[in-house]
Amino acid sequence: MSELITYHTVKTRYWHRLDNNRIQCDLCPRYCKLRDGQRGLCFVRQNLDGQVVMTSYGRSSGFAVDPIEKKPLNHFLPGTPVFSFGTAGCNLACKFCQNWDISKSREMDTLMSRASPEAIARAALDQGCKSVAYTYNDPVIFHEYAIDTAQVCRNHGLKSVAVSAGYVCPEPRSEFYRWMDAANIDLKAFTERFYHEITGSHLQAVLETLKYIKHETPVWLELTTLIIPGENDSETELEEMTQWVVENLGPDVPMHFSAFHPDWKMRDKPHTPLQSLLKARQIALKNGVHYAYVGNVHDKAADSTYCHGCGQLLIGRDWYELSEWNLDDAGHCQFCGVSCAGVFEAKPGNWGAKRKAVAMS
To answer: Is the residue at 358 inside a domain?
Structure first.
């Protein structure tokens, strides 16, 4: 477990001293350089008495049981409930943030519910969950809290799910994904211009994280791209993105194309038309992606899973409700026998679309 300094503040390891009475945080490629008392852009990591500490350990923006498909993960224990929580703050500065009330929050003392890693694992088990998701804001910034929780969860037979933008340095990335079982990573766009101007980060670091997860860990990986009109929805960019995914990650990594709604600092942009999402999905399928989906809109056909061998419907989805299930006990197509990539149990869960808020004592 991480070493506590004061209640809900823990020492961290990924930093080093500079020559000018500052220290540099080495958790993510932002490399915040902090004077004594100063916080990084994420707001939850601070220079306290000459070392970087995490100030939000054990405090959350809330707890809930969600369908695993909401993360979104369509190929990881379909139909099962996942115990979800996050903290506050973020190490990116996305102008379009859809969770800005959490990721941009500075009201740490009034926002937080409290729970230890052990309490989270117990609550997840009590709610009948198969997994715990580190979500709502990016678990990169609550690295120590997430890892401690994942370790306890593994001891209790629970899986851990990371929902992240993947903007993290190699050494902490390796430690973090040692304890994860599945991840949905936001591939926000496929141009450095977008990443630099709209998220305040850089594309290459995210691509390196994707390759690391896929090729150097057993973590199940899915991708999400929020399609923003006029920013990352051109056919050229979608062609390049999906081709890169197939060439560098392989055809079995599912891609989710989700609808944007005007929010935070991009209220001048329109909602994403369904046709734009369907176009992105078709480009992905054309370029060899085996599993491509749309999100934040209702389209049963584009939300469902099809066999890449024979084209038959394998898993029907209506929003977050599962309908058809045509996989055998080993996760193969019942029509042609081709394997469907993913982590499946013999039978799907039946949690459905409900969301259940959980109050922690």
So the answer is: no
Do residues 90 and 104 make contact, with C-beta atoms less than 8 angstroms apart? yes
Whether 35 and 161 share a structural domain: no
- Backbone angles phi and psi of 83, in degrees to 5: -80, 120
3-state secondary structure 204-269: HHHHHHHHHHHHHCCCEEEEEEEECCCCCCCHHHHHHHHHHHHHHCCCCCCEEEEECCCCCCCCCC
Q: What is the reported pTM?
A: 0.95
Chain segment 140-185, per-residue pLDDT in tens: 999 999 999 999 999 999 999 999 999 999 999 999 999 999 999 9
Determine, yes or no, domain membership for 152: yes
Q: Are 169 and 312 within one domain?
A: yes
Amino acid at 50: G
* pLDDT tens digits along 101-125: 555 555 554 346 789 999 999 999 9
Task: Tell me, yes or no, whether 227 lies in a domain.
Answer: yes
User: d(Cα 318, Cα 297) in Å, to the nearest integer?
Assistant: 10
The total of structural domains in the chain comes to 2
Owning domain of residue 228: 60-353
With contact defined as beta carbons under 8 Å apart, do 140 and 165 qualify? yes
